[in-house]
Every structure is written in C-alpha cells, then in structure tokens.
TrEMBL record:
Example GO BP: cellulose catabolic process
List of residues binding substrate: 23, 124, 168, 292, 399, 406-407
One Pfam family per UniProt: Glyco_hydro_1
Catalytic residues in the record: 169, 352
Name of this chain's protein: Beta-glucosidase
The family this protein is said to belong to: Belongs to the glycosyl hydrolase 1 family.
Organism classification: Bacteria, Bacillati, Actinomycetota, Actinomycetes, Micromonosporales
Enzyme class: hydrolase
Length: 443
C-alpha cells in the first residue's frame, strides 16, 4: 500500500480514465451498426478463453448516462473513449450512419455537461468486417477509408472533442492480430505483417490532415511502449534487444517524428511509396503513451524465425495477467523517449496505465483492491519523477473505468476502477475508485 502522500503535479495536469468501444458498448446490432473483425473473431469457436463475445459487454451503449455519472463522481478532467468505426460507417466506406453518430453526440454532450473533456480515439482495433474482407490493413486502400471516416466523425463532433487520438496501439494490432494470430483478425504472418504497420501509419497521417481541416482541437496517436531489458551479456543478446526495441518502440515512433523507419527493424519497406513518410510525419500535438510493463529479451535459439526471444522478468509482483508490476519501467520509458527524440518529441500524455486483478465483492458487496491502489500510486510517482527529470508529461489516464470484455481473455480479466457484474450489469466502485477520487480532489 502507499507509504505517504503523492507529490503534487503541475497545474493543468490532465487526470483521466480510458475505455474502448468494443470492450464496453455492447449493442452489437443496434441502430445500424455493422459487424467488425472482433465480432467475427469472438464468434469463432476457440478464439476467446471463456467463449464469450462483446455483444453486450458492459452495455455502455444503453447505460452511458450511469457511466458518465461515475466519471463525474470520480472527478476526472478527461474521459478517453473510442468511436466504433462500424457504428459510424457500417461497411467501412460510403454512407455514414447518422444513428451511430447520434450516440457519440449524446455521450460528448453529457461529458461536457459534467465538466469532463471528451478525448476520442478513432480506431481501437474494431475494423469493419467488409474492409477486412477487401484486404484490411494489408491493403493500402484501408488507409484512405480511415481518413474518410475520420472526416465524417470530425464533421459531427469536431467542435466539442478536446483531443483526437487517431490509432490505439498499432504495434499490438499488427503483432497480435496479424503477426501471431491471437487477436482479430487472427492472421499469423510474423514479419510479413509489416504492410499493416505502414498502412496504419499512413491512415494516421491522412486522418491528421482530415481532422485538422475540420477542427482546431489537438491531435495525437496512442502507442504501446515497453522498455527493453536485455537478459544476457553476449553480443547476440544485445542485438536481440536492439531488434526488439526497433520493432516494438521505434517502428511506430521514428516515422511519426520525421525519422523514417529504423534500419534495425529489418522490415520490407516495399509498400512505402514516395511522399508516404511525409504524410506520416504530420506534426503531432501530443504523443499518447500506453505502458503496462517492460519486456525481457535475449538471443533466440538456433532456428527461431524471430531475431529475439521474449523472457519473463523475475523479481516483480505480478498482475492477474502475469505481467510484472514495474513502475520503474514507466520512468525509464519516459526518459528513453525524452533522450531519444529530444526536441522532436511533443508533450506526452500517458493514455493507458492499469492492471488486472481478480476483484470480487465481499459479503457486504464492497470491492477492495489494494493491489490496484499500490499499482496506481507507484506509477503516478514514476510519472512525477519523470517530470522532475525534465520530461514534458501533461496527463495520466487509468485503464480502465470499468471491468470490461478483455479481448481474447473475454470476461476473465478485470482492469476497472468500477466492478461490473456482467450478469446484472451492476456497477460497484472499488476502493481504488475512492482512492483516486480523493487524490484528484486533493489536487
């Protein structure tokens, strides 16, 4: 548990929480929404640990007023949510679905009425299935369809959304969805998945232009980062660390900041056309940083198809996901970004940081989660230390407001500040919710 009061944060520091559409909205067939790759994936036998789907999830689509009241009670200054592309453009291209935008219109207005800044993510992995059928992110055309969707969404919401985030964790979507097949759309391409990286980044750049034509609000991207810990002292081990750092951290950062693709990523850039890198390098107002844990890396065994081997890190407490709880890694990561990119680096907001534990109500219906309180305390101290080190960090968003449908893990992992009974949809704020509420009030 925390051992003393947290240090103060700069004036104007943004306190927020994050969610994503498919993980909480439900209402899979409501008001003209089309199918996404996650609908298809979740309904495929054997893909989801508990056999569940996001058809209902937290039923946020029908209960958003209750959830906005929870945000207001928590006292956060911002709420990061994602907009479901298939709810707005059901086939991924062509006609816009006004009823889908109506939902986000109501949500944004309700947030503003409660003094909460809307922070909207345009793509959190739920690609419309018809676009996947036409090639998905392996096809360059998807980047242009993404820009059209961004334009349509900003035309409706651009006067009120306070920060736009184009993509969420393009590395994870590429690696788990297209490289290893454990996320939708379930492809196993390994390094042949690079076109997915490039076309996501191209879509980002095109969407930045579309957003800036519609709104003066700042624009960001949310990348997943993991500091690399090389386990071993051989040249091969160090080379493995360099390769993994290039793939996980630099592949989706270097080109955004005008440096092109890193040579050490060892990817086939044959899909890159003239001027693509200029489009991708459109100036960012904010870099979103999603952090969960560092990664242990060493040289692979002979015959491995990968230039590195991932190794569990020892000596740390573990979450229910078996991820190491390493607040020092967040300070390390923020410092690495600051040193590596220098003046090219825009202000940072930590757009996701959180932990899964097996939370359950006690006999009185209360949910105590001291491990999550300790996690948040440690990671906020790491952010404050990074600020003291000279890193320009202007916000911190907890993942997540609600226990939700956790992708391939289904309902088996709980990240929320608020416990959700998925049978009754009863929301119960956990002790971490109260702790964070009191922390924000004190600041």
């Amino acid at each position: 548990m925390p051992t003393g009061p947290l240090p103060r944060f700069p004036d104007g520091f943004r306190w927020g929480v994050s969610t994503s559409a498919y993980q909480i909205e439900g209402a899979a067939d409501a008001d003209g929404r089309g199918p996404s790759i996650w609908d298809t994936f979740a309904h495929s036998p054997g893909r989801i640990v508990d056999g569940s789907t996001g058809d209902v999830a937290c039923d946020h689509y029908h209960r958003h007023a209750e959830d906005v009241a929870l945000l207001a009670g928590l006292g956060v200054s911002a709420y990061r949510f994602s907009i479901a592309w298939p709810r707005v453009v059901p086939t991924g291209t062509g006609a816009v679905n006004p009823a889908g935008l109506d939902f986000y219109d109501r949500l944004v207005d309700d947030l503003l009425a409660h003094g909460v800044d809307p922070v909207a993510t345009l793509f959190h992995w739920d690609l419309p299935q018809p676009l996947e059928d036409a090639g998905g992110w392996l096809d360059r055309d998807t980047a242009h369809r993404f820009a059209e969707y961004a334009d349509a969404t900003a035309a409706r919401l651009g006067d009120r959304v306070k920060l736009w985030i184009t993509l969420n964790e393009p590395f994870i979507h590429m690696s788990l969805g297209h490289g290893m097949g454990v996320h939708a759309p379930g492809k196993m391409l390994l390094f042949d998945a690079f076109p997915v990286a490039h076309h996501q980044l191209l879509g980002h750049g095109l969407a930045v232009a579309a957003l800036r034509a519609r709104t003066a609000s700042p624009v960001a991207i949310a990348n997943n980062y993991s500091p690399v810990r090389v386990l071993g002292d051989t040249d091969a081990d160090r080379a493995a660390g360099t390769a993994y750092e290039a793939l996980h951290n630099r592949l989706f950062t270097d080109p955004l900041l005008g440096r092109g693709y890193p040579d050490s990523a060892a990817v086939d850039t044959g899909v890159v056309r003239a001027a693509d890198l200029d489009v991708i390098a459109a100036p960012l107002d904010v870099l979103g940083v999603n952090y969960y844990n560092p990664t242990g890396v060493r040289a692979p065994e002979d015959g491995s198809p990968l230039p590195f081997e991932l190794v569990p890190l020892e000596g740390y407490p573990r979450t229910a996901f078996d991820w190491p709880v390493a607040p020092d890694g967040l300070r390390e990561l923020l410092g690495w970004l600051h040193r590596t990119y220098g003046a090219d680096l825009p202000p940072i907001q930590v757009t996701e940081s959180g932990c899964a534990y097996d939370d359950a109500p006690d006999a009185e219906g209360r949910v105590h989660d001291p491990d999550r309180i300790a996690y948040l305390d440690g990671h906020l101290r790491a952010v404050r230390a990074a600020i003291d080190d000279g890193v320009d960090v202007t916000g911190y968003f907890v993942w997540s407001l609600l226990d939700n449908w956790e992708w391939a893990e289904g309902f088996t992992k709980r990240f929320g500040l608020v416990h959700v009974d998925f049978d009754t949809q009863l929301r119960t704020p956990k002790s971490s919710y109260t702790w964070l509420r009191d922390l924000i009030r004190a600041r």
